[in-house]
Each structure stands twice: as structure tokens, then as C-alpha cells.
Design brief:
about 425 residues; alpha+beta; Peptidoglycan synthesis regulatory factor (PBP3), Domain 2; Beta-lactamase; 3 domains; five-stranded mixed beta barrel; five-stranded antiparallel sheet; 11 helices; rod-shaped; disordered N terminus
Length: about 425
């Protein structure tokens, strides 16, 4: 569907923008497996949601706005507030925390000091409740005050179906959220590269505190699926098994939230099914190919336009409902000399208006500098000018020749002609006498 666009690019002249729109819906899938046959999967879970992190498109959902207990994914908000209000190097004092036997803890000792970074690592990887309580009391002075701040922040983030009763995620009346709200909060956190690095670690070492500790990530998909790079697990009796998982394949980042799975194995398997389905919706399109003719530009003094080619190719993964657009821009006309490969413009690739890449457009061939004959208008014009000059010159010579040969007295003044005439009369009179 690509075609050269005339009047594009060059050295001089007003700038123009040419549009090349590719309808991705017309692109055939690369393989039969790339196209889902039966639509979104139905999971062994209570609710779920899958979104594209690039354009926030909802790819699959079931009960995504249904409120449920969310277990330790509550700690996403605890981490969000800590990273918003504290430096990662700040140290907080561990308070006394009496954990129940089944709770996840990092074994922190009351009175020891840990950095905010290590506390967030302990919250996100082993889902340590003692680390979450340390953050809550370190930020707000008490868990109750911190919970008020959590709910205020949820309102600010427009998480309308989220409410917190504790900073940990233990089952408690009023501690709930939805798959939709969890994906919004996770996206805000993933925008911070510090958070992305933490949740992508299968294991980590806590260097601060009274002793060095090694912790493991409860997100076991990190070890079984190389494309998974976060985010947070959770489990309580009310919540069931919960996982908010981020993954990237072929440059496509997806975020899944699965709530209320029946087991850890079901949580992981159903999340993988959801991710596999999402990635199957994308095919690779090459809207710009290296050395492909993207446009052409008129050349002054030449009839043949100059083709402009892309210096490199651009590939992008797109869904059937997305449209790829190539905008080429540059001056209207060029004049030589132009070297082959010289940059004369650029092509910008977007998907549904979202910027993807920008590629230089270069001359496919060299263009020589125009000659004097070219500047004069070409051989025909020069021949016409020469012929006209010859005619004018001949006419001038004719006039000069006629003037010089027009009568004996043609070149003498009146007095001389009078004397000559009188002399002729006198001679005739003398001859008669």
C-alpha cells in the first residue's frame, strides 16, 4: 500500500507534510497461530482484566469492575505512597509487629533501621507484612493515619472502586479493589523505573538493617516465563489467589490482573493463558522498509523526479483494530547538486496517533548541478535565443549597408553638396561658350 508521494523533500522551498495511511486490518496474519480462533479465554478465576500498556486498550475482561478482597496487592498502594513521599535512601525504624503464623514477613527486628528501597523490595518480593507496617508508621506515624492517606491517594488517582482498611492486605471489611483499579495503580507504579527494576527481580539482597537478608519473589512466573517482568502476588481466604502481572513480547507490553484464582498453580496458568491470548492479537507490520521508495521530489531543471528512500526500516506490532500512518515531510523542490544518500527529509511512523519512530529519507541517486544551458531554459530555448540573435544581427547589417550605399551625396553635408552642384553648372556653361 506504500506509494511514492510527489512534491516531497529537498533543499529549499516551503515545507509540506504528506500522509501515507496503512490499513492494518488488510494485513494477513503471519501464521495461523497468530490469530485467536475462539475469542478471549474464560479463566478459572473470579475476575480478570488484560490491557495494552501502550494505549491502555482493554483486550480481555470479566467482572473487571467488581469489588473484591485483593490480599497483598494492597501493598501496591503502600509502595506508591512510600516512593512518592520518601527518598529511597531514607532509613525507617522497624516498629514492633506481632505477625500471625501464616503471615508473610521478612523477619525484621524492632528497632533496626532499613532503607526505603529495601523495605519496598521486602514488600514486593516476599510480600513482607512487617516491612509494610514499617513503611506505614514511618510515613504517617501510625497505621490508621497511613490508611487515611491511602484512601485519599486512591481518590486522587480516580480509583473509584478501591478502599483500604490496612496497609498490608489482610482480610478486613472495607479493604477491597477491582481488576480495573489494580491495573491503573500498577501502570502508575511501572512508570517509575525504580519500581520496575524491583518487581522484575526473582531474588534480592536487603543490605540495610542489622543483617543482610536474601529474599525471593513470590511471583513465580518470573522464573518460568522470560517475558514476565512484574508485578505483585497476593493470597488470603477471602481474596483467593491474586496476581497482577506485566509482560513484554516483541516490544508489546501487556498488564494482566487475575483475581480469585483457586490455587497458586491456577493463578499462574490462567495468567499465562490471558497473556498468550493478548499477544496473539498482534502481528508485525513494516510500514517503512530500508531503501524502500517512500516519496519523490521534483528536481528543478529536470523532468524526472528524485526518489527518496528510507535509510532504515521500521517494524511495529499492531492489532487489527489499529491503523499505522507514515507522515513524510520536507521541502517541495530541490536543485542540484545532491549526493546519493544525502538526507532530504524524514518519515514519522505513528499507530493511532501514538509516536513510534522517525526515519531519515535520503536521495536514491545523485543530482548534478544545473549547467548554464539548464539555467537558460534548456537546449531548445538556447537555440531559439541564438536564432533570434542571428535575425536581429542580419537586420542591423542590412540597415547599415543600405545607409552607406544610398546615393553619391548620401554621406556629405549640405554645403559640400551645394558647392559640387555649382561646380557642375559652371563646367557646363564654359563648355557652351
Amino acid at each position: 500500500m506504500r506509494r511514492a508521494a510527489p512534491g516531497m523533500a529537498g533543499h529549499a522551498g516551503p515545507r509540506i507534510v504528506l500522509l501515507l495511511v496503512l490499513a492494518v486490518a488488510a494485513v494477513l496474519p503471519a501464521t495461523a497461530a497468530a490469530t485467536p480462533e475462539s475469542g478471549p479465554p474464560r479463566l478459572d478465576a473470579a475476575t480478570w482484566l488484560l490491557v495494552d500498556l501502550k494505549d491502555q486498550a482493554e483486550l480481555a475482561a470479566h467482572g473487571a469492575s467488581r469489588r473484591r478482597a485483593i490480599a497483598s496487592t494492597t501493598k501496591l498502594m503502600t509502595a506508591y505512597i512510600a516512593m512518592s513521599e520518601l527518598k529511597m535512601s531514607d532509613e525507617l525504624v522497624v516498629p514492633r509487629y506481632d505477625a500471625a503464623p501464616a503471615e508473610s514477613v521478612a523477619g525484621l527486628t524492632p528497632g533496626e533501621r532499613l532503607t526505603v528501597h529495601d523495605l519496598i523490595v521486602a514488600m514486593m518480593l516476599p510480600s513482607a507484612n512487617d516491612a509494610a507496617v514499617t513503611v506505614a508508621e514511618g510515613v504517617a506515624g501510625s497505621q490508621r493515619a497511613f490508611v487515611r492517606e491511602m484512601n485519599s491517594t486512591a481518590t486522587d488517582l480516580d480509583l473509584g472502586d478501591t478502599h483500604y482498611s490496612n496497609p498490608i492486605g489482610l482480610d478486613e471489611k472495607g479493604n477491597h479493589s477491582t481488576a480495573a483499579d489494580l491495573t491503573v495503580l500498577a501502570q502508575d507504579l511501572l512508570a517509575d523505573k525504580r519500581f520496575r527494576r524491583i518487581v522484575a527481580m526473582p531474588t534480592a539482597r536487603l543490605e540495610s538493617g542489622s543483617q543482610t537478608r536474601t529474599v525471593e519473589n513470590t511471583n513465580t512466573l518470573l522464573g518460568t516465563d522470560p517475558s514476565v517482568d512484574g508485578v505483585k502476588t497476593g493470597h488470603t481466604l477471602d481474596a483467593g489467589y491474586v496476581l497482577v502481572a506485566s509482560a513484554k513480547r516483541r516490544g508489546v507490553p501487556l498488564l494482566a490482573a487475575v483475581l480469585g484464582a483457586s490455587s497458586e498453580a491456577a493463578r499462574d496458568a490462567e495468567t499465562e493463558r490471558l497473556l498468550d491470548y493478548g499477544f496473539s492479537l498482534y502481528d508485525r507490520e513494516r510500514p517503512v522498509r530500508r531503501d524502500g521508495g517512500e516519496a519523490s521530489v521534483s528536481v528543478r531543471y529536470e523532468d524526472e523526479p528524485l526518489e527518496l528512500v528510507a535509510k532504515r526500516g521500521v517494524g511495529v506490532e499492531v492489532r487489527e483494530d489499529q491503523r499505522v500512518r507514515v507522515d513524510a515531510e520536507g521541502p517541495e523542490q530541490i536543485e542540484g547538486p545532491v549526493a546519493a544518500g544525502e538526507r532530504l527529509g524524514q518519515a514519522t511512523v505513528t499507530v493511532d496517533g501514538r509516536f513510534i519512530d522517525r526515519v531519515p529519507l535520503v536521495a536514491a541517486r545523485a543530482v548534478a548541478a544545473p549547467s548554464i544551458i539548464d539555467r537558460a531554459g534548456g537546449p531548445l530555448v538556447v537555440a531559439l535565443i541564438a536564432g533570434a540573435a542571428i535575425v536581429i544581427l542580419a537586420f542591423v547589417l542590412f540597415l547599415l549597408r543600405r545607409r552607406s550605399g544610398g546615393g553619391a551625396g548620401g554621406g556629405r553635408d549640405p554645403e559640400e553638396r551645394m558647392r559640387t552642384r555649382q561646380e557642375r553648372i559652371r563646367r557646363r556653361g564654359g563648355g557652351q561658350a
